[in-house]
Amino acid sequence: MRILVTGQPASGLFVLAALLRRLYGLNDLNAAQGKPPADEQALADLIREGHFPDQSLLAWHYSAESELLQACREHQVQVVCVSRNPYIVFETLYVHANGSRGMPSVPEAVRIKDAPLDGAEVGSFIEEVFARHLQLPVSWLGSHQARMVRQESLVAEPDQVVQSLSDWLGEVPPEERASAISEVMDSHALGSVGNPLSDSRLPPSTICILNQVIPDGFAELGYVQLPCEPEAVMNARVHGFARFLDLYTEQQRVFLVGHGKSGTTWLHMLFFHHPNAAVVAERRLFEHPDQNQALLDDLLNDDWFESWFHSSSFGVTAPEQTGVRYELSRLMSDYLLYRALAVRKTAKGFERNTPITHFSEKIALNTEQDAQVTIDTLKKLYPDARIVHIVRDPRDVAVSAMFHSYRNFREQHERNWITDFVDSVLEGNNDNILKKKAVSAYFRNHAKAWNRIASIFHQSGEALYGDNYLLVRYEDLLQAPHEQVSRLFAFAGLAHDEPLVEEVVEKASFKNLSKGRKAGEQDSSSFYRKGVAGDWKNYLTPETSRKVFKDAWDLMQQFGYE
Fold first, then answer.
1. Could you tell me what percent of the chain has a pLDDT over 70?
2. How many other CB atoms sit within 10 Å of the CB of residue 103?
3. Nearest to 417 by CA among 391, 436, 441, 435
4. Which of the ends of the chain has fewer CB neighbours closer than 10 A, N or C?
């Protein structure tokens, strides 16, 4: 058996190649050759010279040129060509070109690094390079020698794709097929699949250029051309939002809320890894200032709304419907949620094969106003939501916030008392009295802020949401993660069997989030700095901490902090 798996760059052909190697015990000709033949003629020569041995598979980007087709026929090389939505392929290529991964098979992509998506560089790249890529899968359409596989089908229905190919290549026992699919599909980044929330992040002008170069053959493969006129784009988005409302508007909302640097990101990542939860972080719907402020503030302002409502035709004909403002506000909020989720294109984002039953959203609180406005607004817009409030020892919150500021100042090459103090502590020198006074004042301010934010949100949360409000301590998550995660998921109404909890805890562990460090191993330049409780003791004595945190002491004891 000799198999050539081909397709344009970023089409997902290497996932299929790995799956076929695993299914049929094939040798990896890419590895044996060191690098694949440079072009179609070189591959045809390699086949004719006997360098494509039996029980081997080669995967690379080749068009169906006559010499290659003839060589494949003569030497019984089976060809599988992978296609993928061309708009998503281009998005993927652009993301890779502008990230750390790069795109080795497309060296010309350096042209679009740091280039705006609606800029001239991207337009010329599409016309001169990407248009050539698009011809590759279409060239195999007319060949009876190739089997066409849609990447979207491979991701969404791998068993059906494998069954179809095995009818052609040779039957594989069902248990071996299931094992291979599980092993390969779980270990590769699979990209996106068709989804009601699949909305293009490409600007209309770029979509128009793509529409001019996408061959007609993509329609034969089942891909639909996207509209690019502004009105049509808006209509498509409204239609997408309508489908979102039909499918997801009644799903459970879970808001993950806490003082900044209290573990809200960790909490967010725990829900992120639950297979039935779709998550977003800090859309800033309730914080100020932000780009969404104007969308909600007028509707939620009593004086403004009363004036508008009673003078409007709606208010005249239905004066009793004053609560409509909250319904409109929730609709706006849900639309922004839809837009935030609609551009998720990776397997780690919203799109997945498991059913979505919950939406969770992280909100960080930084001021008293944040705390009061957030809980009041949530109650008005989402009275049926569940609220998880995470708290952390305010002394550790202050230390974490100080290092967060320190990291930002260092990145901006700015020096001040925070950078001087932290540098001195990291060097083992903590004897500067003036800096100690500055730190004491800094901690006192954090104590006051933490006390007001935590008390306002906790008291209002309990009063407004009752049993749908849950308080969780960061320290308890550290000490008993499996027990606490099970408690969190049970509260939210999510599945929480032991294997699932074990998997989620591992994926969201400090070691994984920090890319290999154990909890307690500090990296002052990382967002995930240390991952421990009680770090404040390295900066304040217990006696000093009681003095500078006296404004928060009662609430600290209520939450179990001594």
1. 82
2. 20
3. 435
4. C
- pLDDT above 90 (res 501): yes
Give the Å distances, CA to CA, from 44 to 40, 63, 249, 314, 534: 6, 12, 55, 73, 66
Per-position b or e across 140-150, b if 16+ CB within 10 A of its CB: bbebebbbbbb
pLDDT at position 107 is: 83
Is 426 in contact with 524 (CB distance < 8 Å)? yes
Q: Which residues contact 268 (CB under 8 A, 6 or more apart)?
A: 256, 279, 281, 360, 362
Which residue, 356, 353, 326, is CA-closest to 338?
356
pLDDT at 102: 59
Task: Indicate if the pLDDT at residue 468 is higher than 90.
Answer: yes
The mean per-residue pLDDT over the stretch 225-254 comes to 86
Are the beta carbons of 345 and 91 closer than 8 angstroms? yes
Rounded to two decimals, what is the model's pTM? 0.68
The rounded Cα 109 to chain-centroid distance in angstroms is 24
Lowest mean pLDDT among 195-199, 240-244, 555-559: 195-199
Range with the poorest average pLDDT among 13-22, 84-93, 346-355, 439-448: 346-355
Closest of 455, 475, 480, 450 to residue 560, by C-alpha: 475
- Quick check: 268 and 257 in contact, CB under 8 A? no
> 161 with 149: CB under 8 angstroms?
yes
Residues 169, 163: Cα–Cα separation, whole Å: 10
**What value does the mean pLDDT take over residues 113-135?**
93
> For residue 342, which of 457, 465, 194, 487 has the smallest C-alpha distance?
194
Report the distance separating Cα 154 and Cα 83, nearest Å.
10
Q: How many CB atoms lie within 10 A of CB 208?
A: 15
Which residues lie below 8 Å from residue 400, measured CB to CB, with a gap of 6+?
261, 529, 535
Q: Is 83 helix (H, G, I), strand (E, B) or coil?
A: strand
In sequence order, what E strands does 190-281 have?
252-259, 277-281
Distances, alpha carbon 475 to alpha carbons 387, 454, 480, 505, 533, in Å? 19, 16, 9, 15, 6
Residue 421 burial (10 A CB sphere; 0-12, 13-18, 19+): buried
The average pLDDT across 168-177 equals: 88
Show the DSSP H helices in 104-229 as ranges: 120-125, 131-139, 151-156, 158-169, 174-185, 204-213, 217-220
Tens of pLDDT, residues 273-283: 898 998 888 77
- Distances from the Cα of 418 to the Cα of 239, 328, 410, 531, angstroms: 51, 45, 10, 21
Output the average pLDDT for the chain: 83
Q: Are 470 and 389 in contact (CB under 8 A)?
A: yes
Query: Among 20, 26, 31, which residue's Cα sits nearest to residue 81?
Result: 20
Structure tokens at 141: 């359409």
